[in-house]
Amino acid sequence: MKKYLILLLIPLIVACSKSQNKKTEQPISPQENVIKTKAEVKKLPPLTNNELTLTEKDFGEVIELKGTSHPVDKIFQVKECEMIALDSILIVKNQINTDMFMVFSLPDFKFIKSFGRFGRGPGEFQYPSLVKDESGEFLCYIYEKVTNKLFSLDRNLVVSELPVPLRRGRKSYNDKQLYGLAANDFLYVESIRRGKAVFRVNSGKDSTTTTMLKTLAFSEKHKNWAAYIGDFGVNGKNKRSVFAYKYFKRLIFLDYKNMVSRVVSFDMPSKTKRGNPLSMMSPSNITHYWGMSSNDKYVYVLYSGRSPIQVSKELNKSSGYIYVEQFDWNGNPIKKYKLDHWGYFCVNKKENRIYLASNTDEHPFVSYQLPVE
User: What is the model's pTM?
Assistant: First the structure.
């Protein structure tokens, strides 16, 4: 049971396996490296400062999706997994032997290579996180939370450190969640005293500017950092960001150009416990949102609505299930899906398919076709 409870608690840095992982050197073809960067930007309706209160009925009927399993040669234990799906490749953060990252081709899930050795030395990682790149210059960025450093991953799968000095937060470890607008321009959320806030950092040749855009704390009864754990997404083309709270059924959409925000909350009894970080993260506390994949048109958020204890009992008997709620960038509900597996997810760049890494199945990858609009 403990192996499932850790999925919804603050991740711990795991020890490195002593076994060596043989990398398959199979460069990505030029066609697979192509990323469209000049897509037409559809202007969104203006955001207004208000609060939108919803009920579950506002999504309409829940759409149940049946997943397709994709066997792969490289079997690995799904744990602390993150994924970014581009046009024809899937980038996965999940330790496999001594490496922290893997790359697979899409749609066939053919293993390309693993990279990013676990360790404390130069070019090695301990607690990294994948960061999306808006510009298309790179496949993505990598943020190392232990050293507070940023790296780029280019189209040849070469990792390079970026000269972006990130300000250290108030906590003993770095909990930033970042989004890359460009190699010198990032948005991020980070814990602050009695809450969390959205920041923007711009790095030039001679100076770096870090600006707080908006605080995310909203409850006088909940003033510790753990109350505001959640997920962060950005639509840089339309100057929008979104944050979904783990322990509240609540999201906040921000127009960071005009500094206008809209809160989306649900009309339901509040059962969020108050207390210190340890009590907030109790496995008996209900988890609402705990995963996000944002793209040009929509925001997709994983929704549980159960406690880790409840989920653990379900996973001991089956592959579990998880919901995905879909919103537009003004916070309006679009659809709600029910996936027939539990795990970590992302939505591909074309926004027509969900990829899920299942922590209960023999073969880790499951895909779901989204309904045609």
Answer: 0.88
